[in-house]
Q: What sequence folds into this?
């Protein structure tokens, strides 16, 4: 249940409501920014309705409340003038890991020439083996930030651990929570207290309910800038790195107001499968894509197999430019430029 309080409500009136809720031993959360109280489903709403401080009540049947579209129809926010919402299609692209200045500058220049507004790149990498390349750390963040500034791009990068929050906050425009951290509730809770957008990847074995409740941790802290990112779930079949669950797009849209973007790179694990899944994601109504690209994919220090070359990415943009205007969704404006690189045979 979400209780919207009157703008004119006095501190004392609010306190009376809180005391009432406490008397029922209800765990509730007051979100000052939106002047609302969030609580789990409550069976006697009439007791609350009569409180003078109450403007309106949203009775929500699901365990997630703020992530539900019973309460809110649309999430829309802006990253330095670029709108992220359910009615835009945004593309984020860049290497799996920031490796060196040349790599990240070449990538940033290429993205900017193609009208892309967001550069991705990991500086702290969650690797399965501790002996794999684990990123350049703060130096990587600085390189990414510098390249982004030079080419007027916005930075998307992973916040791997709470101890890194100050650094990542300083250099990122959107903070990515990786699949492995989707249920790091302590981290999510702290990200609820900041004012930058969070890209919340789906845990590799998370149900939709788990995922929306993870988003709820961030939302209930007062941070309403959350974008979901489907990146594939684990299955029994070793033929595919992950199973990219594109069916979740329409489900999210039925149940939530949060924008959802798709990561076909981790979702498939193979470069040749990125394009078909990216196009399918757009056709299914996704609000954007996050794609791994590299100036020389075979030399990438992480996830090289799933990384697109600039030419492959240009071809994807070309196809998206053809596809997106013909879809039945009202995504009025897309943040896609026209690919300028000449396509060679792939
Ligand atoms: C990534 O985007 O680089 C990444 C590690 O993704 P995921 O958390 O989805 O594995
Ligand atoms: Mn990767």
A:
């Amino acid at each position: 249940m979400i209780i919207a309080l009157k703008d004119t409500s006095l501190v004392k009136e609010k306190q009376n409501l809180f005391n009432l809720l406490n008397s029922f031993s209800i765990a509730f959360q007051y979100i000052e920014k939106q002047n609302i109280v969030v609580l789990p489903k409550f069976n006697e709403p009439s007791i609350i309705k009569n409180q003078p401080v109450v403007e309106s009540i949203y009775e929500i049947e699901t365990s997630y409340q703020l992530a539900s579209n019973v309460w809110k129809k649309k999430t829309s926010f802006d990253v330095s003038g670029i709108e992220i919402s359910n009615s835009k299609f945004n593309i984020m692209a860049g290497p799996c890991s920031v490796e060196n200045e040349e790599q990240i500058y070449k990538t940033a220049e290429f993205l900017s020439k193609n009208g892309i507004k967001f550069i991705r790149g990991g500086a702290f990498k969650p690797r399965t083996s501790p002996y794999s390349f684990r990123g350049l750390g703060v130096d990587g963040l600085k390189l990414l930030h510098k390249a982004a500034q030079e080419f007027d791009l916005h930075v998307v990068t992973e916040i791997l651990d709470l101890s890194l929050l100050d650094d990542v906050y300083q250099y990122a425009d959107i903070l990515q929570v990786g699949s492995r951290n989707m249920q790091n509730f302590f981290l999510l809770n702290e990200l609820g207290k900041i004012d930058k957008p969070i890209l919340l990847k789906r845990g590799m074995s998370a149900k939709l309910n788990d995922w929306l409740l993870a988003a709820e941790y961030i939302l209930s802290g007062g941070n309403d800038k959350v974008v979901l990112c489907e990146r594939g779930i684990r299955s029994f079949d070793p033929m595919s790195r992950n199973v990219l669950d594109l069916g979740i797009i329409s489900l999210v849209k039925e149940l939530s107001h949060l924008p959802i973007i798709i990561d076909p790179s981790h979702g498939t694990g193979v470069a040749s499968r990125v394009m078909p899944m990216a196009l399918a994601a757009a056709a299914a109504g996704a609000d954007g894509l996050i794609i791994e690209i590299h100036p020389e994919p075979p030399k990438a220090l992480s996830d090289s197999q799933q990384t697109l070359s600039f030419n492959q990415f240009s071809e994807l943009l070309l196809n998206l430019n053809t596809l997106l205007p013909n879809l039945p969704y009202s995504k009025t404006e897309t943040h896609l430029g026209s690919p300028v690189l000449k396509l060679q045979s792939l």
Residues 96, 122, 126, 178-180, 201, 231, 266 surround phosphoenolpyruvate (ligand 1) (CB under 6 Å). The first helix runs from residue 11 to 23. Residues 2-58 form one domain. The first strand starts at residue 2 and ends at 5.
